[in-house]
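Troubleshooting entry. Yesterday's outputs looked truncated, so today I'm pasting the complete records for two proteins to confirm everything comes through intact. If either block looks cut off, that's the bug. Protein one:
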Amino acid sequence: MLTLDNVSTGYDAIDVLHDVSITARPGELTVILGANGSGKTTLFKTISGLMPIRAGSVEYEGRRLNRSRPNAIVKAGIAHCPEGRHLFGKMSVEKNLRLGSYPHRDKARTEEIFAEVLDLFPILAEKAKQPAGSLSGGQQQMVAIGRALMSDPSLLILDEPSMGLAPIVVDQVLASVAQINDKGIGVLLSEQNAKASLAIAHRGYVIAEGRIVLADEAANLLDNPEVQAAYLGL
């Protein structure tokens, strides 16, 4: 579905990503592990067209995305739910969600997806008319994920969806991510909770200082001594 081939990019004269190669297979959940500052957010911004590619290539379903604008990438089927949520706090939950549907011209499909989002996150149906800024952190993360889903993606990029949330809420958010993937939507996930994210993933990559240092099936990464020592506290 998504292939990055020796991608390098960065800010000003400094490269942050160095020859990064990643493959996300159709319908699979792929997790990216790495410490803060390792390049995960830059990686996701590069895929979404928010950062230019200096070297290498990004292809999605056989289409080269190197020079594609972010809105064209969304229309191609990639939705990016960024770290920090970036909601419009004074706008209602429903309006925040519907902002994600802008690529659609099919009103019937938009309403179908909206119903699916509320089915996935029932609390948002109760809070639909409330300002998004009045919700708890976990509920705001649900709105952010739901807004991304409103674009009807075949690949959903999630950047640290559990950041700052209580452990029980983290479990709920990751359970919803697994549900999304079960519906056939591919997921590319960056997540602080390495053990929980590997438990629901098919495949994983470890990034350090902008380079991919490990790549394997998720179950193998869970058993990898290097991963256990660095990310699982074992």
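Protein two, checking that the full record survives here as well:
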Amino acid sequence: MTPKAPSVFFYVQHLLGIGHLARASRVARAMIVRGMDVTLVTGGLPVPGFPGPGIPHIALPPIAVADGAFAGLVTATGQPADEAYLEARKNQLLAAYHAAKPDIVMIEAFPFGRRQVRFELLPLIDAIDATQPRPALVTSLRDILQCRSKPGRDKETVALIRRAFDLVLVHGDPSFAALEDSFALADQITDRIAYSGLVCPPAPPSSEESFDVVVSAGGGAAGKHLITAAVGAARLLPDLPRWCIITGPNLPQPDYDRLGENLPANVSLVRFRSDLASLMTGARLSVSQAGYNTVADILMAGCHALLVPYAVDGETEQTDRAERLERIGRVGVIAEAALSDVSLATAIRHEIARDLPAQALQISVDGAAQSAEILWALAKAKRQG
């Protein structure tokens, strides 16, 4: 009799951008390719194209945050998510878990982040603990974490990891950024940590289009400043005649309309390009924020890049990632606080003239497939143990 394929119940909650959902979708796809049964549970606003065809998907009633301060949860209509709404979400999540009967439950970010959804994740952990046989519990983390602003949170995280979690799966390469670099108490959970390498897309095909500058702002919810400065910089650099500026699907429509009213002649403005990584291969320079997935695209495209890390409301993660790449000469960086039409135009001019390092960057980039292998081995060990 053929053994049942390992099953994974994978929870991901995106609140502002789409990076968490994009990475989780790639990992889910790799697990399915490996032969695992996957249920991907999402709780954010719908994003066209994600999680993608062939990935079994449960969408909880959506929640988001109103702004980059991550204060207060709202529904898809922008109204505050009240107690009844959140209770219904929690109950739907628990019912989906019990129906799935998984070998592994994987939760993206929590308890290192996503405290806003502990109202449903702590009950989920209680349900896991009450299940016999108990499934393995894994947290799925990006390579660099946000620095804590409140004392005691790291200790709480460690206590919950040691009590309830079997594995901390870090989607990064420790030679570039180890967990202890952004989480001070990582030495207390060393026995739980595994690294998958960066979760990157396949190397993109070469683009048939060529641009001097491709500007992208991820999901767009937090990229208005960058996009506005880019339009101004293009006006100051008419000798660079081909610009593609991609606002992201979540830039508010009034902002998008205002940008389009008086565009410079050298700018093509669009909301979304599914072939962004391919476009990068045909660009003299990519200008973007420094989110996990955008940097993955840059590395796979092999393109010249200028990063403007998102740093509003005390955010540190993108700045840390950008500065690590800048120190080894792979990218240029301009701080968001210094961003203007003029400063961006100056940085673009400088970066286009600079040579990239001759030596290729040595970072493991097959994190999706490696995550699947790590989880397959965990499920096998759990069944034998």
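Both blocks look complete. Sanity check on protein two: Residues 7-200+365-384 form a domain with the Rossmann fold fold (CATH 3.40.50.2000).
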